Amino acid sequence: MAAQEIRNLYFDIDAPKQLMVVTSAEVVKYALNVFFETKIFFINEIANL
Hints:
Elements: H1 2-9, H2 22-47
């Protein structure tokens, strides 16, 4: 099973892990990208003051 292979690959990394379906992972990825872009936009606007 692919999920077990991924677990084995990341077993030694001491970080939280979340197993999810592809569509959920894509939504999380897009949400994080929007969040980071918003942070960058905000800092750039502050720098332009």
